[in-house]
Amino acid sequence: MDAVTESRTSAADQHSHHVRPADMEWQKTRFPGCEAKTLLFDPATGLVTALMRFAPGAVLPDHEHVKIEQTYVLEGRLVDKEGAAAGLTIGPGEFVWREPGSRHVAWCPEGGLMLAMFQVPNKFFEADGRVTDSMGKDWNSVWGHAAGE
Question: What burial letters (b/e) apply to 18-55, b meaning 16+ CB within 10 Å?
Answer without folding.
Answer: ebeeeebeeeebebebbbbbbbebeeeebbbbbbbbbe
